[in-house]
């Protein structure tokens, strides 16, 4: 009985811990932003640093199958124990 109450309390506390406020991220008072990338004129903002690049999140293609071809017969695709023709 006590373990079920403890488990329920733990679930409630974990759920409440995830309900923090959503505010824009800022560096701490004594912390600097990362160095300016080579070739860049100005330092990127925190929002720019958090946005993934196109290489990190490529565009997904909905149409994966562009052509439908009939499969060729494979003489080596045999069930276990069968002999080839």
> Which word captures the global form?
flat
Radius of gyration: 28 Å
pLDDT < 50 runs, ≥5 residues: none
Q: Between the first and last Cα atoms, what is the distance in angstroms?
A: 67 Å
Coarse structural class = mainly alpha
Mean pLDDT: 78
Number of helices: 2
DSSP summary, beta strand count: 0
Helical content stands at 10-25%
Largest sheet: none
* N-to-C SSE string, H for helix and E for strand: HH
Beta-strand content: under 5%
Blueprint of the fold:
Elements: H1 2-17, H2 46-50
Write a concise synopsis of the structure shown.
The protein has helices at residues 2-17, 46-50. With 85 residues, the chain is mainly alpha-helical.
Describe the protein in words.
The chain has two helices and no strands. The model has no long low-confidence stretch (mean pLDDT 78). It is mostly helical. It is flat and about 75 Å long.
List keywords for this structure.
85 residues, flat, single chain, 2 helices, mainly alpha, 25% helix
């Amino acid at each position: 009985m006590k373990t079920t109450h403890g488990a329920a309390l733990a679930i409630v506390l974990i759920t409440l811990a995830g309900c923090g406020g959503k505010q824009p991220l800022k560096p701490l008072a004594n912390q600097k932003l990362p160095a300016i990338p080579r070739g860049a004129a100005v330092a990127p903002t925190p929002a720019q640093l958090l946005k993934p690049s196109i290489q990190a999140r490529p565009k997904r293609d909905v149409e994966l199958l562009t052509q439908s071809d009939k499969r060729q017969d494979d003489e080596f695709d045999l069930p276990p124990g069968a002999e080839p023709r």
